[in-house]
Amino acid sequence: MAETKYIFVTGGVASSLGKGIISSSIGKLLQARGYSVTIQKFDPYINIDPGTLNPYEHGECYVTVDGHEADLDLGHYERFLGIQTTKANNITTGRIYKSVIDKERRGDYLGKTIQVIPHITDEIKRNVKLLGNKYKFDFVITEIGGTVGDIESLPYLESIRQLKWELGKNALCVHLTYVPYLAAAGELKTKPTQHSVKELQSVGIQPDILVLRTEHELSTNLKKKVALFCNVDDNAVVQSMDMPTIYEVPLRMQEQKLDVTILEKMGLPVGETPTLGPWKAFLERRHKATEKVKIGLVGKYDLQDAYKSILEALSQAATYNDRKADIHFINSEKLTEENIEESLKDMDGIIICPGFGQRGIEGKFTAIKYCRTHNVPTFGICLGMQCMAIEFARNVLGYTDANSREMDEKTPHNVIDIMEEQKSITNMGGTMRLGAYECVLDPNSKVYQAYQSEHIQERHRHRYEFNNDYKAEFEAAGMKCVGINPDSDLVEIIEIPTLKWFIGTQFHPEYSSTVLKPHPLFLSFIKAAIDK
């Protein structure tokens, strides 16, 4: 295509309606038609990135290959489209303002008064078009975080208004709202949607397509009513009902011809409907899998979004092993020697979750000791891997006071230590070892069998590392260092080969698991859990 087309996805009535899933579904359907697509997320908060946010505030922090800490929706974009996103795919208000202020300090705007319009909105518009201009994508989908009416969103909405005016048929707005069901009245109510669209119109944006989130089937009459009151075509009102899995959503959108409506509105040929063969095969396999594999997630955040990528990677791997992932959260703060047997005995496999800080750490050690001594398939990720090393040092090597420098600055047996290049760093944000790094695998390891490759690349997010001074002792006692970074000699993977499946990775493999390419380590872990 000669010119990049821009689709804006906004939300109203309530947050957490699934703008990321709708954006990903639109992207998937357009990609299936042969178009090159990317998706970006614009977050209205003032943090530079979500790296310093508590997961309870914003869910997990996703990491891109180029080492950017990003919103969890970028995980959905990658899982649905099988693409890799970068720093340019996630912009925050903090980044926008910092860029403008840096330019002002340099004297780029000499003599001008810096204002929201045009300076902030111009910077937003520049970022909206950046990927399209640089890589010539056919479609750039931009999801705006938050809801219409939030004071923080106003500069973004003003930028969309200007872009729709400037780009004409090359820009389109999809607005996602909620249609609640009032049980007392026995009715679905469209008024919140009408108000949300009015709010959007009040800032000069007429949505082209409405996607209505609902728990109940919407009648044709109700959709016609919404179309009439909100100034959109009848065929541009689409319902998005709750589904057993988010991966159903692209098919439901395709059934309602959402992609066709988008193409027609942008003056593009419609052509044949894509069959989405591999995607449907995945879903069919998922539906047929009735037998469960029980996985315990040992962590401190009792919130599904805190471990979003891990949950999706497990779900995908279970499907490809013809099982349903039955995932149980086990709060590590509450685990003790007394209740550990009761908490873990029914689990086929255990994930020791990533995280930061002291809270819940002793419970993780208790869980790891139980799994190691009872030969339960165990997968430690990032801090989970570090906990495996500490537990081994305490209970096998006999260093009862072993710890990580993160938990105890003065520990005499710092089997986990701060990385050399991290010692002089004082700022918290964006300063960890982030992004994709090389790793060389031991050909005689379970991880090598899983990857079927000696050289891999995985994404990191940590400040602390395995202390190589202890490497020989660990290996002599049976815990092998089977994945090493070739440049820094950093231990990336540990495993106990005599156990069924006892592996810890310093990196986050869950970030690179997608619907059509599940991660080999998760596939291998689930297989071991089934065999148990």
Describe this structure in words.
By secondary structure, the chain is of the alpha/beta class. The protein has 2 domains: 5-281, 3-Layer(aba) Sandwich (Rossmann fold), CATH 3.40.50.300; 290-530, Class I glutamine amidotransferase (GATase) domain (Rossmann fold). It contains 18 helices and 23 strands. It has a 9-stranded mixed β-sheet with strand order 13-12-14-15-23-22-21-18-19, sandwiched between helices. Strands 5-2-6-1-7-10-11 form a 7-stranded parallel β-sheet, sandwiched between helices. Strand 8 (181-182) and strand 9 form a beta hairpin. Helix 4 (93-106) packs across helix 5 (116-135) and helix 5 crosses helix 6 (154-167). The protein starts with a strand and ends with a helix. The relative contact order is 0.11.
Radius of gyration: 25 Å
Mean pLDDT across all residues, rounded?
Answer: 94
CATH superfamily of the largest domain: P-loop containing nucleotide triphosphate hydrolases
Give a count of the beta strands, DSSP E runs of length 2 or more.
23
Q: Number of DSSP helices?
A: 18
Corresponding CATH architecture of the largest domain: 3-Layer(aba) Sandwich
CATH topology label of the largest domain: Rossmann fold
The major sheet is characterized as:
9 strands, mixed
Strand content: 15-25%
Structural category? alpha/beta
Enumerate the strands of the largest sheet in spatial order, edge to edge or round the barrel: 13-12-14-15-23-22-21-18-19
What overall geometry do the principal axes of the alpha carbons give? globular
**What are the low-pLDDT stretches, counting only 5+ consecutive residues below 50?**
none
